[in-house]
Amino acid sequence: MRLSKRTEYGLRAVVQLARLWPRTFVQSKDLAQQEGLPNKFLESILLALRRGDFLESKVGSGGGYRLSRAPREINVGDLIRRLEGRLTVKEETSTDELSPGEVAVRLINERLTDATDDVLDAMTLEQLVEHVTRAGSLQQSMYYI
Amino acid sequence: MRLSKRTEYGLRAVVQLARLWPRTFVQSKDLAQQEGLPNKFLESILLALRRGDFLESKVGSGGGYRLSRAPREINVGDLIRRLEGRLTVKEETSTDELSPGEVAVRLINERLTDATDDVLDAMTLEQLVEHVTRAGSLQQSMYYI
DNA sequence: GACCAACGTACCATTCCGATAGGATTTTGT
DNA sequence: ACAAAATCCTATCGGAATGGTACGTTGGTC
Predict the structure, then answer these.
(1) Model confidence, pTM
(2) How far apart are CA B25 and CA B61, in angstroms?
(3) How far is B35 from chain A (nearest CA, A)?
(4) Looking at chain B, which runs of residues are DSSP E strands?
(5) What digits encode the pLDDT tens for the residues A8-39?
(6) Angle at alpha carbon of residue B76, lines to B104 and A102, rounded to 5°
(7) Directed axis angle between helix A100-121 and helix B125-141, to 10°?
(8) Is the peptide bond between A100 and the residue preceding it cis, with omega within 30 degrees of 0?
């Protein structure tokens, strides 16, 4: 189980935006620089997030992106499902004439998606950022031991 | 979250073998035909499973594959991890100088792999086959309603 | 009206996935 | 002994997905 680069970059940008919330707009260029990401690629990701109503954008000088809602209101599962862009062609639910092996595979797939959805849906962006800053301060405090 | 074809085919073959356990060797060709899988591709998968000590094989006329142990002794998690053949280049555990975003991504990845491992490790091949045959008999009985 | 940044489109390079081809090796059956 | 049968092994390949770049357009600010 591995997240795509697209998802990873999107998450990293959103985490940055959440830490700045509710301050004003941040430009794609700056986000890319802070996290060391390819600028144009990131732009396309941010655009998708805006379309998914996770971000608001402002064009022109002094423009940029910001979260459309408070981090508390944003669910990580929703975010990632948007980023992964699952097309998953509806799985062709032809329940008839399934071999035993096919039934087994289907069962496992269901269990896996349920488990991952549970993990991701139980986490808000606020919680995620909280974990991160805790880990960060922990990391920082270790320099002084 | 989706299993690769390689994993899917391997599972389907193993489920068939588990249903026949502890009977004698089944040929790749027959497994491929029963499940409608490409023969040569399946062969390479079965070979990997043999190397992973899930199967025993016998060369020559009357040869084939069979489980190396009882289905009860085979863990689905082990099986799938073998089949996916994740190379996952050790994640480069450079704990220093991580951006907040990177920490967040790492956290999510850990949670996801933990959750999926939990699901898969809690299932033996015997249990999987049991689920399948139950579902199968249910499906069959519906023909007679 | 000059600049700025989001928006949009098209394209490209590389990797991975699923699969096939063609054989070499080992055992069984006659 | 020999032929058939099956696993075992290596190489290759087409196509799709992924990750990324280039270039231009639109809309907003000073």
Answers:
(1) 0.88
(2) 11
(3) 7
(4) 55-58, 64-67
(5) 999 999 999 999 998 789 999 999 999 999 99
(6) 100
(7) 110
(8) no
Residue A66: φ, ψ to 5°: -150, 165
- Residue A29 beta carbon within 7 A of nucleic strand C: yes
Contact list in A for residue B19 (CB cut-off 8 A) is 100
B102, A34: Cβ pair inside 8 Å?
no
Which string of DSSP letters, residue by residue, matches B114-136? HHHHHHHHT-BHHHHHHHHHHHH
Provide the pLDDT for residue A23. 79
Q: Which residue has the tokens 């490790």?
A: B121
Shortest distance between the Cα of B7 and any Cα of chain A, in A, equals: 9
Q: Quick one: tokens of A128? A: 């995620």
Alpha carbons A59 and B93: distance in angstroms, whole number = 39
Rounded to a whole number, what is the largest CA-CA distance in chain B?
65
pLDDT confidence tier of residue B142, bands split at 50, 70 and 90: low
- Determine, for residues B88 and A113 on separate chains, whether the beta-carbon distance falls below 8 Å: no
Any idea which residue has 């399934």 for tokens?
A: A98
**How far are the Cα atoms of A127, B75, B76 from residue B119, in angstroms, in the given order?**
24, 11, 9
Q: Which two tokens stand for residue B111?
A: 């949670």
Q: CA separation (Å) from B26 to A14, B17, B31, B62, B82?
A: 53, 8, 7, 8, 21
Q: Which positions of chain C lie under 7 Å from any protein Cβ?
A: 3-9, 17-22, 25-29
Looking at the DSSP bridge assignments, the partners of residue A65 are A26, A57
Residues found in chain B: 145
Side chain identity, residue B80: I
Cis amide leading into B71 (omega within 30):
no
Q: Both tokens of residue B68?
A: 């190396």
